[in-house]
Predict the structure.
Amino acid sequence: MASLSRIKSDLSELHEQHEKISSIIDSLLNDSVEGAPIENLTGQLKELVNLLHVHFSTENTLMAQSDFPNMTVHMQEHKRIFEEINSQYQQIKRGEKVLSPILADHFRYLEDVHIASVDKELVEFFREKLCL
Ligand SMILES: [Fe+2]
Ligand SMILES: [Fe+2]
């Protein structure tokens, strides 16, 4: 089991990462609607992919160290989301495609379902442990 102080600092880090992920996604969705140059979108997408890599590792480690009940399903979802967004990013980087409605759907899923609901369950589980 991770120490309580470690859980507390991880939760605050996760919160900051969620805010940052949402802000990049909102900006990407706005820019793509407004037809911003693809170079702008690629830079933001790269930042998002790097941040997701760090963020999912932080959540996975915290779950693994604390016997989180839905850990396997949650980790599988991280893997699926990362692979989907990263594979689209790699194609955009190679110039094979532009930001598509499919990628926008992945973003909305990440923000409106994963962070808003699946991660909420995780955060509440750990807040209970900390009696917050
Ligand atoms: Fe998360
Ligand atoms: Fe998550």
About this structure: The helical segments are 4-33, 38-65, 71-93, 101-129. Residues 77 and 114 are 8 Å apart (CA to CA). The radius of gyration is 16 Å.
